Structures are given as structure tokens and as C-alpha cells.
Amino acid sequence: MSLQGSGSGAAEAYQSALLMEIRSRLDAAESLSSGFQIRLRDGEDLIQELQRNTTVFERRLSGADRLLLALQTQSSAQLDQLSSVESRLTDGLNSTTALQLRLSICEKQLEHLETENTGFGLRLNQTDDRLQELTDTNSGGLELKVAFSAGLTDSGSVGPFDKETTLIFSKVITNVGGAYNQTAGVFTAPVRGLYFFSFTAADYLKGYMGLYLYRNNQPIIFNLDLNNHGGYASTSNGVALQLEEGDAVCLSLPASYRLYDDSRNFSVFSGFLLFPL
Question: Which pTM was predicted?
């Protein structure tokens, strides 16, 4: 009885110990499972965060791809522009070379023209000098105008005198150029040239009438008329004279001759420059 009771107690104790061990192991397993669940939740949270980060990265990557594509497109355009610029630069260099060649040719032509122009300048200076000489020679005809007419007197008879006397035609009708001196009765040539002189002389009494035309001290013309009937009579003449500058021309009344003039200008002395020489 006691042996049987003793064996039954040992079995219960063993079962109790085994149950406790199982429970302990079960508690440990549950604790381990709880830890796994916590770590699993942490892992799931991490996965969700990684998924969100991945979405962000994918968006940023997509934007970067688009930016890269835009940059590639821009780079391609810039490459095209660079190629165009290089082509234009090459054309410009070629054009510059051609221009340099043309410039060199032009410089040579310019040097040749300068040489020719130097010769032309010398010839032009010679021509100018010659033209100036001709202008100076012809200036009297081109610019200087000389002409005069003058009546003898308003007082009536002039002469007769005991000796030959220069006639003073004191009534100036015109005196362009101022070459006639009405005080002395003398015309003085202002330039070398060909001049024309004329005169008319009158008287109304019987006797001889006449006069000389002088160049300097040389008689050129002598006009003579005999008034043998009384009443008015006249004589006239004209001559072209080559004069040097300063030559003098005048009319002179011979001794014992006489003339007549009044306000009607019966006796007139005239002259003018035909052309310079």
C-alpha cells in the first residue's frame, strides 16, 4: 500500500515539473513571439518609410531624367550652334585671307597711283603756273576796262598859238578805268595792249585847221584841212596803236592853227583798250 502510494506521488511530481517547464517554455516562446511581432511591426514601418522614400526618389529621379533630357536637348542645340559658329569662323577666316590679299593688291595699286599722282601733281603745278601767267597776261582784257571820250572846251576858239601846244580836252564825257588825265590832256596806257584812238576837230573861220596825234614824243598822225569858204568845217581820223604800259597819247595843235568847240562838242578825243598783249 505504501509502495503504491509512494509511486503515485512521484508521478504527479514529475508531471507537475514537466508542466511547469512546458509553461515556462511556452512563456518564453510567447515572449519571443511578442518580440518578433514588435520587430515585425518595426520592419513593416521601416518598409513603409522606405517605400515612401522610394516614391520620393522615383519622383526626383523622374525630374532628374527630364532635366537631363532637357540638358541633352539644349546641349545638342548648343553643339549645333557651336558647329555653325565654327563654320562661320572658318568662312570668316577664309574671307579675311581673301580681304588681306585684296588689301595687299589695293596697297600696291595705291602706291602706283600715288607715284602717278606725284607726276600729275608736278604737271598740274606747271599747268597752274602757265595758266597763272596767261591769266596775268590777259587780266587786263578779262578784268580791266578802259575807255574815254572828252570834249575840247565850251569857250569857243582855241588858238592860234605861237608854238605847238598840247590840247587839253577838259570836258570828260566818260573815263572808264581813269586812264585819261583831263588836266593834262594825256591818256596813259595802264597795261600793255592794243588800243584804238579817234578824234574830230572843227573850226568855223577861214584858214588852216589841223592837229597831231602823239605816242609819247612821236607824232603818229597829222590831220590838215583848209577852210577857204568860211563856216563850220571839221576833220577826223582814227588809229590802232600797240602801247606799252605807261605810254602816253595826246593831241597837239600846231603853231598858227586853231580849232573851235562849244557846248555842242564839235571837237572830241576818244580812245579805248581793244585787248591786252
Answer: 0.50
